[in-house]
Description:
By secondary structure, this protein is mainly alpha-helical. The chain has 15 helices and five strands. The chain has helices at 3-19, 41-57, 67-70, 80-94, 110-114, 116-120, 125-130, 132-141, 147-161, 175-192, 231-239, 257-270, 274-281, 285-312, 315-343; strands at 28-33, 60-65, 101-105, 167-170, 200-203. A three-stranded parallel β-sheet has the order 1-2-3. The chain has a two-stranded parallel sheet with strand order 4-5. Strand 1, helix 2 and strand 2 form a beta-alpha-beta unit. Helix 9 packs across helix 10 (175-192) and helix 12 packs across helix 13. The longest helix has 29 residues, at 315-343. 40% of the residues are buried. The protein binds tryptophan (TRP). Tryptophan is lined by residues 30-34, 64, 66, 69, 156, 159-160, 168, 170, 174.
Amino acid sequence: MSIDSYEASRKRSDEIRADLPEHPEKYTMLTGDRPTGRLHLGHYFGTIRERVALQDLGVATRIIIADYQVITDRDSTENIADNVRNMVIDYLACGIDPEKTIIFTHSSVPALNQLMLPFLSLVTEAELLRNPTVKAEMEASGHTLTGLLLTYPVHQACDILFCKGNIVPVGKDQMPHIEQTRQIARRFNERYGHVFPEPDGLLNNSPAIPGLDGRKMSKSYGNAISLSSTDEETAKLIKKSQTDADRTITFDPEARPGVSALLTTAALCTGRTEEEIAAEIGDGGSGTLKKYVTESVNGYLAPIRARRQKLAQDMGYIEEVLHEGNRRANEIADATLDEVRATMGMVY
Ligand code: TRP
């Protein structure tokens, strides 16, 4: 994605953010996650918190658990079902209300997947091969490029457009997919007739929460604090995080990534600034800092973890939430596919 179009996306994102509280009824939010593990603080501060806010503003909110995306770059489906159910638990524990927000999975909504056929006809091989996120994901996975990995941005366009989503809270890495989705919507509308909105990405304005080592927070780096961890697991993870020998705590992400990541984590959980916390700890060393971070994180997550535990005891309810979400998503997808067939003149 060029710098220019990134700047344009950022500008539209800011304009929408300003308009949202005034006209929530204009917007449908669609976003989602791959069910590859438990949600962590990076997900929470990066997007989950915002989804809850949009839901509570009265925006139509839909969350897809992207189970078909898991098989873009791995062979086993072994943990998917368990991850899907735990993801629902994580969402509800964070404040997603299934009465307001539709939670559903790819594999349960056939009409969504069928949009893939007309949509694939609207993109070129060169466009697919150019997508930088697809390339990066292929390299990270160590697998060769599968047809599904190559075309999953088109599948993501199906996720967004089946419900005529027009805002998509995502990180920067997903912006090429939003651009591709806009192109698909535009081309469909021009070629056959107007059906789809051109969705905008809603870019997060706060800096990404670093993992405990200062790199991006990711389960595969072992630097992530899961919402579902216990207080003890959280303490242990923070305790073994890499800091440095300087006893005086200062916020300096470049020179001191470990110490600074801990400060940012505590800052997000307490609403204080990194500098304020650093000044308070002074020359107390990383032991004092780690103790403070552990208390901040565990304190912040306590109500979420308590709700999580309660929800996990009633898996029948979790199943019901998924069934109802899938039912509602199917209703929307069926109506959109009917409209697509009619617009394409394929009604027999
Ligand atoms: N591709 C996203 C990720 O890897 C998950 C996802 C699937 C998604 N479908 C989506 C995000 C639709 C936004 C909109 O995290």
